[in-house]
Amino acid sequence: MNILVTGANGQLGNEMRVLSETHPKHTYFFTDIAELDITDKAAVSAFVADNAIDLIVNCAAYTNVDKAEEDEATAMKINADAVAILGGQGVKVIHVSTDYVFSGDEHVPCKESDPVAPRTAYGRTKYEGEKRLLAACPEAVILRTAWLYSEYGNNFVKTMIRLGHEKEKLGVVFDQIGTPTYAADLAAAIFTVIETPCWHPGIYHFTNEGVCSWFDFTIAIHELAGIQNCKVSPILSEEYQYKTPRPHYSVLDKSKFKKTFGVEIPYWMDGLKRCVGKLKIEN
């Protein structure tokens, strides 16, 4: 197949690029905004036709939660309008969505069939993207994920390592629970979807295994990075004073993905060890 990967310069897109080197069965076209504006319907249609694209993997998204509140129109353009354009090309689509489509008030892991109730502009635009994609391309695969990080781009892991070196003390929220997800593991899951002999359309949840708070996550990051001179203290979300509300419980049930594709998913600490190990080598 000829496979278009959008958002190729982001965390997930970069991991897809790296992993594609060990998956030579198909031909991959990696694009970001400089190569292809996915909000431009004519440009997308021309690219798909000119390169005989068989499958689109959409890794592009507007992910700045706070800025989305101030500029929901732009977030909607990228997270929903562009997704509808990609879904209307007459080819299969794998699209990445988010835990933010849920309210965050749950106390058990969310299943794909649970009712959505996004409370932020980011969540609303991502959910709108899901709906428009399925309307345009019923055969699409949607993977909802959460707490994504990698050695590429800006993310929580790299920020906590930087702050750990810069500051003597940090306050990190302990009343928000979720699952850190290494983008390399999500990329591997996408390749599993691509290379499984039978196509299984629908919505799936994928994160690493296990749960923790942002405070626990930070402690683990600092331990693995060898940071010893920064005291990390637990604080409440209200003490941090977020501009935009964050989910208090953001755990996704991955049973459907594991059963459908017959895979074991790595524990979040194992993914973190691999990522921090690569960051150490780079530095």
Strand order across the largest sheet = 2-1-3-4-5-10
**DSSP strand count:** 13
Give the helix proportion (percent range): 40-55%
The CATH class of the domain at 2-153 and 181-208 and 251-267, by name, is Alpha Beta
According to CATH, what is the topology of the domain at 2-153 and 181-208 and 251-267? Rossmann fold
Shape: globular
Regions with pLDDT < 50 over 5+ consecutive residues? none
Tell me the structural class: alpha/beta
N- to C-terminal distance: 37 Å
- From N to C, what is the helix and strand string? EHEHEHHEHEEHEEEHEEHEHEHH
CATH superfamily of the domain at 2-153 and 181-208 and 251-267: NAD(P)-binding Rossmann-like Domain
Query: Could you describe the largest sheet, including whether it forms a barrel?
Result: 6 strands, parallel
Task: Give average pLDDT, whole number.
Answer: 96
